[in-house]
Amino acid sequence: MNALRFMFPLLLMSAFAGCSGDKESYPPQNITALYDDIAQYASLDSAGRAAILSDDSLLLHDYMAVLDCPHITDSLMLMVSRSKPVEVFTPDVQRVYPSLDSLEMHLGYICGAAAKRGLNLNMDRYAAVVWGRPQSVVFVDSTMLIALNHYLGADYEGYVGMPAFRVGCKTPQNLPYDMAESLVANAYPFETNQSPTLLSHMLYNGAVIAAKLELVDGATPGGAMGLSPEQLKWFDDNEAKVWRALAAGHLLYETSGFKIDRIMLPAPSTDLVNPNAPGRAGRYVGYRIVQAYRKRHPEATLEQLLSPSFYNGENTLSEAGYNPQ
């Protein structure tokens, strides 16, 4: 296990190796390593701590706000600096991410590619953090906080005991996709009507996946959908069967949030569709419908696909002509 832990920086470099800029090139976005400042706070003398408290850093205020600390005091900062998540995860984050350069390049590519395609992601500040919260990415006003302790690798010993389908997403390779999805979903959130259907969720998620494929350098369909090569192959081989199960089972217009989550969210399987289907079956089919729609409507922009008139539209499915055989 120790040998594996020291391999993480090498895995990280290969994960970001795709950020080559062969097709498009954009300047990197600065990401502040806020976890370093927080971890070091308790070791500073009183003058050093006072300097940080007087700095009035927006990033620090945003971080503390997520921790339900609207006001920053020396005692609160000491408590956070000495907290178990900060003490346990910070050294591992520093080892897995010895530099944020490659991550900044990926973020720059996402933001540049989004601007080129007419998407306004509305963020001014980015910070890498460590915390014990379940969220991996959180937005506070115009700040994006990225909790790197959620991306330490599928074999990270701190994830032992977590379900395999969740651990599989906690990798450096998955981080650029999650950044892109979070930025897109924050700027273009799912707008519900009174009873949003499974189909609306599928179309929206399909549009977000389409955006990720254009915004993440070196993106692959499996990576954008959060599927392993084996899971993607299963869906490709059984696409018609999955579609028939959704259509014939009268699930497309299902409005039960519980059932929708079982078809859309990560899970060991999508048993409502097929006991052998991997989780996220709804995301896969949603993306395939969006692909079919774009073939018929090549003029459709990402912004149009991310609009309620598309994913809540009564005629979107028929206009896509999606009918796998």
Protein structure class: mainly alpha
Give the overall shape: elongated
Residue stretches low in confidence (pLDDT < 50, at least 5 long) are 1-15, 17-21
Query: What strand order characterises the main sheet?
Result: 1-2-4-3
Mean pLDDT: 92
Radius of gyration using CA atoms only: 21 Å
Strand content: under 5%
Note the main sheet: 4 strands, mixed
Report the helical percentage: 40-55%
SSE string, helices as H and strands as E: HEHHHHHHEEEHHHHHHHHHHH
Quick tags:
325 residues; mainly alpha; four-stranded mixed beta sheet; 53% helix; disordered N terminus
Protein architecture, described:
The model is unreliable at 1-15 and 17-21 (pLDDT under 50). The chain has a four-stranded mixed sheet with strand order 1-2-4-3, sandwiched between helices. With 325 residues, it is mainly alpha-helical. Helix 2 crosses helix 6 (84-96) and helix 9 crosses helix 10 (198-215). A hairpin with a 2-residue loop joins strand 3 and strand 4. It has 18 helices and four strands. The chain is elongated, with a radius of gyration of 21 Å. It has helices at residues 2-15, 34-40, 46-54, 58-66, 74-81, 84-96, 101-116, 164-167, 175-187, 198-215, 221-225, 229-237, 239-248, 257-264, 281-296, 302-305, 308-311, 316-320; strands spanning 32-33, 125-129, 137-140, 143-147.
